[in-house]
Task: inverse folding
């Protein structure tokens, strides 16, 4: 007999513009931005679902969705091509009178109530498609059940400075949530929301309908729905998470997360076969590393041609570093060429770029002599002419 209901399904919010990533998200949604040599940011949330036994994922797209839609396809790379369930791309609904864009995170889920009801779930897992982490959602679901919770929020401890930029919770001795503030000026705790929620569906549906009916609502989970649960005294709990988690919403955090992959301590646990991160990897020729090249502490993916110097860098599929070129502390995204005589230091270079001869991009922090330092960034499909100098923090 064919299974006609699911205990828990996931709704993955992947429609964000990612404006703080500037040139890297001009023509693509943030979850589709390349990460870690052979992945896209969204691969982590999708892989977490599969590794947690959740085989039904609604992927809510909106901003620049074409590349993301093509990448997800039928969900096969993540074992999400199912007859009942699997991966489903869910753009905003088109109505007979007008197109109804997603007005906020809560409205995005509200618009997809018919999709959720197809599976008659008892629980719904809400995720963001722009975080780098590994997590067993099944353990969080068991916590949700044991506590008799209607809303469970995964939390991670952050610095007091970071707390002002996040949703912050205060809890009692049983981890029940007693206070929640979105981006507080004066945080009462350092327990920050990871943007990972489990709701009992019957309760969430009721609150989504009420939120949509409120003309003053911003239709947002953090600003409206979660405060409404708290105000009404619904059972809410914070699920503590102690692993690696990074919101890659800025250029600096994206660079940091890529560099973390080069840490010998493997903070993201990428070598663990039980929590593998899956991706749609297209067939590539083998990598060629010339005998004259110098490569140290770097991640070099299939299909690269390395003849120059590469150190402490993440080099994506199809990249070429010519003899006499130096790439250091840098993320080179797919199919980018660095020609001879050029130096690229502490930078992110987008897809399909050509760095012509004798270009200087960025600098090492120790070489800035007290000047303002930061990551240099080159957008996708840019050609940088010979002799160009791109300073630290400069964005092209």
Result:
């Amino acid at each position: 007999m064919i299974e006609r209901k699911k205990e828990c399904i996931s709704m993955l919010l992947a429609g964000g513009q990612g404006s703080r990533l500037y040139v890297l998200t001009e023509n693509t949604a943030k979850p589709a931005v390349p990460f870690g040599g052979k992945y896209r940011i969204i691969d982590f949330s999708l892989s977490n679902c599969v590794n947690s036994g959740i085989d039904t994922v609604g992927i809510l797209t909106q901003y620049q969705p074409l590349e993301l839609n093509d990448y997800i396809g039928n969900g096969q790379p993540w074992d999400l091509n199912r007859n009942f369930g699997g991966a489903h791309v869910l753009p905003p609904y088109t109505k007979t009178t007008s197109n109804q864009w997603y007005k906020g995170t809560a409205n995005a889920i509200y618009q997809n109530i018919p999709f959720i009801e197809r599976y008659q779930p008892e629980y719904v897992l809400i995720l963001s498609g722009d975080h780098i982490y590994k997590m067993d959602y099944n353990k969080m679901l068991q916590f949700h059940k044991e506590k008799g919770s209607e809303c469970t929020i995964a939390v991670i401890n952050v610095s007091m400075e970071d707390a002002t930029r996040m949703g912050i919770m205060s809890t009692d001795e049983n981890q029940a949530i007693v206070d929640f503030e979105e981006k507080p000026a004066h945080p009462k705790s350092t327990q920050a929301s990871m943007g990972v929620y489990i709701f009992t569906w019957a309760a969430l549906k009721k609150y989504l309908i009420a939120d949509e009916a409120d003309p003053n609502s911003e239709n947002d989970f953090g600003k409206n729905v979660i405060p409404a649960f708290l105000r009404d005294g619904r059972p809410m709990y914070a699920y503590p998470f102690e692993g690696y988690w990074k919101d890659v919403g800025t250029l600096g955090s994206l660079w940091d997360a890529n560099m973390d992959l080069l840490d010998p301590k493997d903070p993201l646990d990428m070598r663990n076969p039980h929590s593998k991160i899956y991706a749609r990897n297209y067939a590539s020729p083998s990598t060629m590393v010339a005998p004259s090249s110098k490569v140290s502490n770097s991640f070099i993916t299939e299909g690269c041609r390395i003849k120059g110097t590469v150190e402490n860098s993440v080099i994506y599929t199809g990249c070429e570093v010519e003899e006499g070129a130096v790439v250091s502390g840098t993320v080179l995204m797919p199919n980018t060429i660095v020609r001879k005589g050029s130096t690229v230091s502490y930078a992110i270079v987008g897809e399909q770029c050509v760095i012509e001869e004798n270009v200087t991009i960025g600098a090492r922090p120790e070489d800035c002599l007290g000047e303002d330092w930061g990551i240099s960034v080159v957008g996708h499909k840019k050609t940088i002419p010979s002799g160009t100098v791109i300073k630290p923090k400069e964005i092209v």
Observations:
- Residues 133 and 378 are 26 Å apart (CA to CA).
- The chain has a mean pLDDT of 90.
- DSSP finds nine helices and 30 strands in the chain.
